[in-house]
Amino acid sequence: MRGLVLALALTALALCAAPPGAASGPEARAGAVGAGIRGAGAGARAAGTGADGTGSIAGASTFRGWAFDTCLAPTVDTMRRWTTSAYQAVGVYYAGRGRACERQPSLNRNWMRSVRGLGWKVLPVYVGSQSPCVVSKNKKHVPIGRHPWAQGTREGRDAVQRAKSLGMQRYSPLYLDMEAYTYRKKKCAATTLAFVRAWDREVRRHAYVPGFYSSADSGVRHMETARRAGVRDLPSVMWFARWHTRPNLNREPVLRRDAWSPERRIHQYAGNVKERHGGRTLMIDRNRVHAPVARIG
């Protein structure tokens, strides 16, 4: 572990300088080290920029409770029927070149306002380019390229623009879905980390809150190792997938208890399960949440 931390620290140090010119579940199926690195501006500070993942996020609306996510945004009628369930929040795959359910016939600004009116909270998920060493075969067609920082910046900008088009306001979280990858491959890890950091920085620059979803033993472990090494521009919220276990926000083995705390964690504890409420059946993942949710205008 010491060797891995040192390698990441050296990689992060190389990534600190501005470059020249400058996340499994139903959806998958269908900072710098050291001083001298400046923040991303006043807007980013307002959205929360703590490199160590601690402290409350100014301006964010937080939710504590149960959530489900599913590949295709359900119709408003289905969401109305599901108000009989214990869930009060829904994860929505709203944009990104790596989405499995690219066509989202129900998802528009009116849908966002309608589900808000029904009392739902929304967790917006952006499935962009994936790690070059992504495990899932159906994600290998959208790899991070040779210029990860520039690519992460472009996709961070796209994430914000697409969120705005759906009526999500500043201080909303945008969760970057990075499916499981072989993070112990140093070159791949460096490329992935550069992309994530650039994406985070761009999202913060527009005063939105960058979140991160991945497998606990893959992307989440990678981000935690980077955090311990003092890397800047990391996600503000951590959505970790560890299935076949009880929902628990504070006992994830790969995260130190004070990391991404308070109000900065989501645990996806079960996936690919069918549930039926109000006469409608969906294939979902189950989540325990204490984290920011979208501010819908």
State Rg.
Answer: 18 Å
Mean pLDDT: 86
Strand order of the largest sheet: 1-2-3-4-5-6-7-8
| Low-confidence parts | 1-52
In percent, how helical is the residue content? 25-40%
Shape descriptor:
globular
| Sheet with the most strands, sense and barrel status | 8 strands, mixed, barrel
* Order of SSEs: HHHEHEHEHEHEHEEE
Q: Please indicate the percent range of residues in DSSP E strands (runs of 2 or more).
A: 15-25%
What structural category do the secondary elements indicate?
alpha/beta
Per DSSP, the total helix count is: 8
Secondary structure: number of strands: 8
Can you give me a brief rundown of this structure?
Helices cover 31% and strands 22% of the residues. The chain is α/β, with parallel strands linked by helices. Helix 6 (148-165) packs parallel to helix 7 (186-205).
Characterization of this structure:
By secondary structure, the chain is α/β, with parallel strands linked by helices. The chain is 31% helix and 22% strand. The chain has 8 helices and 8 strands. It has helices at 2-16, 26-29, 42-47, 76-81, 109-117, 148-165, 186-205, 216-228, and strands at residues 61-69, 89-95, 121-126, 173-177, 209-215, 237-241, 265-277, 280-293. It has an 8-stranded mixed barrel, surrounded by 4 helices. Strand 4, helix 7 (186-205) and strand 5 form a beta-alpha-beta unit. Helix 1 (2-16) crosses helix 7 (186-205) and helix 6 (148-165) runs parallel beside helix 7 (186-205). The radius of gyration is 18 Å and the shape is globular. It starts with a helix and ends with a strand. Residues 1-52 have low confidence and may be disordered.
